[in-house]
Amino acid sequence: MNNKTFYVTTPIYYVNDVPHIGHAYTTVAADVLARYKRLCGYDVFFLTGTDEHGQKIEQAAQKKGVTPKELADTVVERFKSLWVKLNISNDKFIRTTDEEHKKAVQKIFKKMQENGDIYLGEYEGWYCTPCETYWTETQLLDGNHCPSCGRETHKLKEPSYFFRMSKYQDELLKYIEENPDFIQPPSRKNEIVSFIKEGLKDLSVSRVSFKWGIPVPGDENHVIYVWIDALTNYISAIGYLDETEQFKKYWPADVHLVGKDILRFHTVYWPTMLMSAGLPLPKKVFAHGWWTVEGQKMSKSLGNAIDPNWLVDTFGVDAIRYFLLREVPFGLDGDFSFKALIHRINGDLANDLGNLLNRTLGMIKRYFDGVIPAYKEEDESDRELLAKIEEVFEEVDKHLNNIAFNKALIAIWQLVSELNKYIDKNAPWMLAKDESKRDRLESVLYLVLDGIRILSLLIYPFMPDTAKEIRRQLNLDIDLHKSNFDELKKVKQLKSGIKIGEVKQLFPRIDEKEFLEKISKENEKTMPEPSVEEITIDHFSKVVIKAGKILEAEKIVKSEKLLKLKVDLGNNDIRQIVAGVAKSYNPEDLKGKTVAVVSNLKPAKLMGVKSEGMILAAWVGDRHVVVELPDDVPAGSIIK
Ligand code: MSP
């Protein structure tokens, strides 16, 4: 009977969005922990899934003209198929529309009620009638406008059940203090502690203003607040409803991995709910940072949320898994760029790891006809290498227990580098020239092969396919799940006298320049126009556009693009405006024209020349066409 258990979870993803690298990130991270712990002999439960209730989903479905369940059924398949593609080894995929989950949510709600922690009150917020949505004061635009449609909102009240969260403030602070690992990384813990110390308020946990959710038991007009519903997934998925053996075995979870934006829900709402329901708290909640893409925030409107499916098809699953966890320390924000990705692939994967395998197997073929030699003659450099191998297991274990994926990978790559150095130092190609050094030649290459075997174990949680491929080339068992890790970890386990498998390159190098050019061409061809963020009339009315008569125009020395204009905006308002149209207009072409000018633009300097406004022009393929107004429009006329 295995009594070492490990329960790891990802957030459950909303089905109003398609999966992007942010989602892939947490799921790959959880997968690495699950695979590592399984390898170490733990009985692992790895949970992921989808969050399908709530007003956001209801509205997204409405927009698409389908029911919320239909929307969820479609989007859920995208998540599931992506997880297959990314080699995610989850033990269960929970959907909050699962019957068992719904009952489990009602059960925890009742428990909290029985404990005297739920009471009926009134929820007050800013309501947008067309959107049927409540907003908080801080979300509103310009004081009282809906951030979604821009229309006016009004203060509204509705009956709501409340959770007496305030009651658990001291107990929660005590738990956090007594369990210093509960909130990770430590910087985030401080944020949460100060938030709690400011005073916990009771939480509104039901709504009557929409229907898509789990009804409050005994008062079906109300649906349970989506976060109460969602957080409960961590226990409903393992059998909380019937308090099964499985539930007792895995709860409390060892670690919930979450993004920094949802840490508060996991370290304030969730633990206080559990306290109220009389259940133990999770051992750890780890908040990772956020990814930007090529320096920009990922967003639907910018159209820059890279599809992870495309990434995997283009670069291979393990390159992506490796990059996500190697590039950025897990608690910090990071930037995804093709340059950085290609750099990692060419450097760490193709050069360091790929080449190590390739050159070693090449020599095994050349000197030993592809048969694994025996270890015969030890020397000092061997002892150093063996000591390094012992160390790396300990380091990786320490770092993975601290959820420091990048540090674990750095430690593994130190071994890659030690092995490459060991080859260079022992120069098998020199040993091969001297028949009397045959034993040493065998020993050196044996040890390197054994080191590569060790690497296949170490990289397995991160890059399962590559680990298997290395093991196939070494002619080893590729199924690591049923293996005894403690045995496998021992050095010099490789059997001699066995022929290696077919040799293949692990990671082809990518020509960065060629790739980037190809991408930009494809983007031009296929990228839809990025859908621009919608603005309200209030936003637009902030821009003052006026008719302006160009009085003078001249070239700016040293600039191919810029012209300096003197423009009359009426009412004695004569401005100097720099316009980037010099490739399309000679100064004399512009003189006398009446054009459209953004008149309230903050002055700026272009090539050292002051500009007090901007003239509007259309970009037509390769040239500018200035927006002209008929001559009889007086300078200073407002354009709306
Ligand atoms: N449904 C809730 C979670 C409920 S858990 C009980 C939710 N869903 S989400 O789909 O919006 O986000 C899921 C996760 O993706 C969050 O952990 C969030 O931090 C993460 N990410 C979303 N965008 C991200 C990046 N740009 N970068 C990294 N992770 C990001 O919140």
Short description:
This protein is α+β, with helices and mostly antiparallel strands.
What keyword list fits this structure?
flat; single chain; binds 5'-O-[(L-methionyl)-sulphamoyl]adenosine; 7-stranded antiparallel β-sheet; alpha+beta; 6-stranded parallel β-sheet; 20% strand
Task: Give the SSE layout.
Blueprint: E1 5-14, H1 21-39, E2 43-51, H2 55-64, H3 68-85, E3 92-95, H4 99-114, E4 118-128, E5 133-135, E6 154-163, H5 169-178, E7 183-184, H6 186-197, E8 203-204, E9 206-207, E10 215-216, E11 219-224, H7 226-231, H8 233-236, H9 245-250, E12 255-259, H10 263-277, E13 285-288, E14 291-293, E15 296-297, H11 308-315, H12 317-327, E16 334-336, H13 338-368, H14 380-401, H15 405-426, H16 428-431, H17 438-459, H18 464-473, H19 485-488, H20 512-526, H21 537-540, E17 545-555, E18 563-568, E19 574-579, H22 587-590, E20 594-598, E21 604-606, E22 609-611, E23 614-615, E24 617-620, E25 623-626, E26 628-629, E27 638-639
Parallel strand pairs: 1-2, 1-12, 2-3, 7-13, 12-13, 14-16
Antiparallel strand pairs: 4-5, 4-6, 6-8, 9-11, 10-11, 14-15, 17-18, 17-20, 17-27, 18-19, 20-23, 20-26, 21-22, 24-25
The structure holds 5'-O-[(L-methionyl)-sulphamoyl]adenosine (MSP).
5'-O-[(L-methionyl)-sulphamoyl]adenosine binds near residues 11, 259 and 262.
